[in-house]
Amino acid sequence: MTRPRLLVLRALGLGDLLAGVPALRALRRGLPGHDVVLAAPAALEPVARASGAVDRLLPACAPGRAVPRALDWDGPPPDVAVDLHGNGPPSHRLLQSLRPRRLLAFAHPGTPEIEGPPWWAEEHERDRWCRFLEFYGVPADPADLLLPPPSGPSPAPGAVVLHPGAGAPSRCWPLERYAAVAVALRERGHRVVVTGGAGEEELVARVAGRADLPDADARGGGLPFEGLFALVAGARAVVSGDTGIAHLAVAHGTPTVTLFGPVPPSRWGPPALPRHQVLWHPGPDGDPHGHRTDPALLRIATDEVLDAFDRLERVERPEPGGRRAG
Question: Is the pTM for the entire model greater than 0.90?
Answer without folding.
Answer: yes
